[in-house]
Amino acid sequence: MYCPICRSEYREGFTFCAECHAGLVDELPAEQTPQEDDLVSVFEGDLSRASVIRTVLKCAGIEAWIKDEEEHAIFPNLNPTEVLVARENRKAALEAIENPQHDAGAAGRLSHSTTTNIKQRSS
Questions:
Q1: Taking the CA atoms of the chain, what radius of gyration do you get in angstroms?
Q2: Run of H or E including 119
Q3: 6 or 118: which leads in pLDDT
């Protein structure tokens, strides 16, 4: 059993994701990564905040990627990173970040500086 939103795996007998509260499915659809030209940035900042933003978006049902995630994992303070979403999801992503679902847990609690970075990106 899998969560179609965060893609977490569950043992038989579970019916809902503990994080996203989505109904579980037997099989996950193949992940489709859009072309880079179809992605837009909705956040710029450090890797830890970017990871929180990506989790908030996944819990809202919006697929998100961290630009150059592997490089930033090795050199976390090298440069700011970006959270990317499909162009057509930009507005919904910014709304989800501004008003995270309360049930997104720790990912839903954003610091003031994170929210400020997001507002700057939406301008």
A1: 15
A2: helix 112-122
A3: 6
Amino acid at 102: H
pLDDT of residue 67: 85
Q: What confidence tens digit (pLDDT) does each residue in 16-29 have?
A: 888 777 888 888 76
- AA letter at 78: L
Residue 35 DSSP SS3: coil
Taking each helix axis from N to C terminus, what angle separates 90-98 and 47-59, rounded to the nearest 10 degrees?
Answer: 100
Average pLDDT over residues 36-52: 87
Q: Side-chain half-sphere of 101: how many Cα atoms within 13 Å?
A: 16
Domain membership of residue 48 (yes or no) is yes
Residues 9, 10, 15, 17: is their CA dihedral positive or negative? negative
SS3 72: helix
pTM comes to 0.55
Instruction: State both tokens at 37.
Output: 């030209």
Split into its structural domains, the chain has a count of 1
In angstroms, the CA 7 to CA 64 distance is 13
CATH of the domain at 75: 3.30.70
